[in-house]
Design goal:
Layout: E1 7-17, E2 22-32, E3 36-41, H1 47-54, E4 62-67, E5 82-85, H2 97-108, H3 113-126, H4 142-154, E6 160-164, H5 172-189, E7 192-196, H6 200-206, E8 209-214, E9 219-224, H7 226-232, H8 236-242, H9 245-248
Parallel strand pairs: 3-7, 3-8, 5-6, 6-7
Antiparallel strand pairs: 1-2, 1-4, 8-9
Helix pairs in contact: 2-3, 2-4, 3-4, 5-6, 7-8
């Protein structure tokens, strides 16, 4: 499968789950280079499962994921070209923040120790954590751990990052600050961002394009700009996702 110019991720005919009962069936969509793209949906809709397939942690029942410059993530060899932030940040708890960032550099580059240190400092500076390289993850706040996880995702200078529920567990102010960081990285670095989220405030602030998964449909219920889907979608299920307050608003006599 050939990836078109300007496309960072291309998914064609992807079915995931179990052979007797697939969770998602025949998904096809593209992620444009330089965009912030979201995978949305209610509980049990398959967001996290799709995320794991996109980054190559699980093999699909059918179909294919193609990442420009990387190829199929399940078949890719050599230095990773994309970074990942897991929901819990994924930092190794017994290692300092600096050591966590240095690990991919040790594995995938031939940089000397002082060069690795310079890269670590630069990446921590990009996420507002300059000077925290000797701290353990337990010594950092939840928001700082998420920032540290993003710094590690960027340490190999990828063109694309996958973020799993970046705002989960954060207070609204800290979540908004993290959104601002993601937007800054997208604009300043031209970074393509694919994120899973259910935070409506983050969707409004960040997302340019999205797919909305539905458990009953076993697939994509809607695709497009979430601001337009919120008010223009003809499907009441789509409007209800973006405007949950309408579900509890009493009818006017």
């Amino acid at each position: 499968m050939k990836v078109e110019p300007g496309v960072a991720v291309q998914v064609v005919g992807l079915s995931v789950g179990w052979s007797q009962e697939p969770l998602l069936v025949d998904l096809s969509f593209e992620v444009r280079r330089g965009s912030i793209f979201a995978i949305l949906g209610g509980s049990g809709s398959g967001k996290s499962t799709l995320f794991r397939h996109l980054i190559g942690l699980e093999a699909p029942l059918t179909g294919r994921v193609e990442i420009a410059g990387v190829g199929d993530p399940l078949q890719a060899r050599g230095r990773p070209r994309f970074g990942v932030l897991f929901q819990s940040s994924g930092l190794l708890g017994s290692w300092t923040l600096g050591a966590n960032l240095e690990l991919p550099l040790r594995r995938w580059t031939a940089l000397e120790p002082e060069e690795r240190e310079a890269v670590v400092c630069a990446r921590l500076g990009q996420v507002g954590l300059c000077g925290y390289q000797n701290h353990l993850p337990a010594e950092l706040s939840g928001g700082m751990r998420k920032r540290g996880g993003i710094a590690r995702a960027l340490v190999l200078d990828p063109e694309l990052v996958f973020l799993d529920e970046p705002g989960a567990g954060l207070d609204p102010v800290t979540a908004a600050q993290l959104d601002d960081l993601i937007l800054t990285l997208n604009r300043n670095l031209g970074l393509t961002v694919v994120l899973v989220t259910h935070e409506l405030a983050s969707i409004e602030r960040l997302v340019e394009d999205c797919i909305l998964l539905d458990r009953e449909e076993k697939g994509i219920l809607a695709r497009g700009d979430p601001r337009q889907l919120r008010v223009e979608s003809p499907d009441p299920r789509v409007r209800a996702f973006f405007q949950p307050e309408t579900l509890s608003t009493p009818a006017v006599p």
